[in-house]
From TrEMBL, chain A:
Gene3D superfamilies with a match to the protein in the record: Aspartate/ornithine carbamoyltransferase
Keywords: Pyrimidine biosynthesis, Transferase
Any one GO biological process: 'de novo' pyrimidine nucleobase biosynthetic process
PROSITE patterns assigned: CARBAMOYLTRANSFERASE
Name the record gives this protein: Aspartate carbamoyltransferase
Known EC number: 2.1.3.2
Molecular function GO terms recorded: amino acid binding; aspartate carbamoyltransferase activity
NCBIfam families per the UniProt record, alphabetical: asp_carb_tr, PRK00856.1
Subunit structure comment from the entry: Heterooligomer of catalytic and regulatory chains.
Residues annotated as binding carbamoyl phosphate: R53, T54, R103, H131, Q134, L264, P265
GO CC field: cytosol
Domain Aspartate/ornithine carbamoyltransferase carbamoyl-P binding as annotated: residue spans: 5-144
UniProtKB/TrEMBL annotation, chain B:
The name this protein goes by in its record: Aspartate carbamoyltransferase regulatory chain
Ranges of residues in domain Aspartate carbamoyltransferase regulatory subunit C-terminal: 113-155
Cofactor note: Binds 1 zinc ion per subunit.
Family label: Belongs to the PyrI family.
Known partners and oligomeric status: Contains catalytic and regulatory chains.
GO molecular function, one term: metal ion binding
One example of a Gene Ontology biological process annotation: 'de novo' pyrimidine nucleobase biosynthetic process
GO CC annotation: aspartate carbamoyltransferase complex
Domain Aspartate carbamoyltransferase regulatory subunit N-terminal: 16-108
Amino acid sequence: MRHDHLITSKQLSRGDIETVLDRAAEIDADRAAVADRHAGKLLGLLFFEPSTRTKMSFETAMKRLGGDVVDMGSVESSSVKKGETLADTVRVIEGYTDALVLRHPKQGAATMASEFIDVPLLNAGDGAGHHPTQTLLDLYTIRENAGLDDLTIGIMGDLKYGRTVHSLAYALTNFDTSQHFISPESLQLPREVVYDLHQQQDAQIREHESLEEVLPSLDVLYVTRIQRERFPDEQEYQKVAGEYQIDSETLEAADDDLTVMHPLPRVDEIAPEIDETDHAAYFEQAHNGVPVRMALLDLLLSDAEGQGGETDE
Amino acid sequence: MSDDHDHHDGNADHELRVSKIQDGTVIDHVHGGQALNVLAILGIDGSEGEEVSIGMNVPSDRLARKDIVKVEGRELSQDEVDVLSLIAPDATINIVREYEVIEKHRVERPDVVEGVLSCPNRGCITTGDEPVTSRFEVLEDGVRCAYCETIVRDEIASLIETN
């Protein structure tokens, strides 16, 4: 894999994805082997939006590779509060670090930021746009549980604003997958994503309003939160909210091997009673963020050094 | 059949409604109803005293109904022609000097237009205070922001940046 930056999952080939996931599996099996691999390296964390899992897993990943992080801290305590542009911020911090991780509320922020810097930039979420590192850990989890080919996956919830959904949908087109998108009409996939999937990726996708019609055929059900704040009024939200929650009764119609995933945080989309079943993979999914991001950082930092991502243990 | 036919044959009356210019540009074969958007792209609102003639919904062999815009004393830049192509893909540009057409060509849709359209997505990074020039990929039936990837198919003229 040779990329200067990771902005969107659209830039990842099947080979790129397999390289990262294979490396993650190696690291997962023997983390001690890479404990000092990037000693002395610094990763800059620029989070302009709140984040728990993504930020902490990047921090953990870098430290488990022997490196360290510098953290911009909250927007409130940074120069952003003084009106500094993102372009200036990344140009300053790239001088301190070997790579940058950026989360920003504006779509296209990572694309723009990457045009101002030379160190590798990882997009950790840009508004409703993309979240490619989440996608890599999602794919890792799917591969572990159900394989990535001959796969029928349902993706349910807020598909309109859900950046994890957009990134996952693009990446899955590299594999032999059938994608079913389940959402209320008001939260269907953006037309830009549908355009890409149909016109550029030529993917076979289907959209549904009801989970019932596809649940029995699914190998994986990827649930996202229906965001109440997106609805124009509470009544509209209440019309659909209950239909997109799953519990034990819902899953009676599912295959015994169904894997249930969620990028977290969840609110009430998945009943706690599912947590202890064999279906639940969402905590495993969150934990996979560390080895996958370790693999990604290893490959990018090694590429930056001209090592080509080859292991040297 | 060449649409020049319009000017020299049965539609001479329409030609008379739009007088000849001495020096400048004639933008012909603009889709009917788009003439005012053409003026918007050129930044012409009459306030600078520009001399402009417009024919709207004139019969045309090629387009059935077309608009014609004649701008005195101004030759269009390539950037202006590029953006014109987005709303007037069949337009012909005639450069006129001393009442003679000295250059005539069809517009060609560029692959990318930079710095001329603003993204309608309020969540796009280009809509803030960043030092970034807008960039749109030109699709067959619209344009797409190179940053937030929003696709715009209708009302492209409304995205023209005003300085």
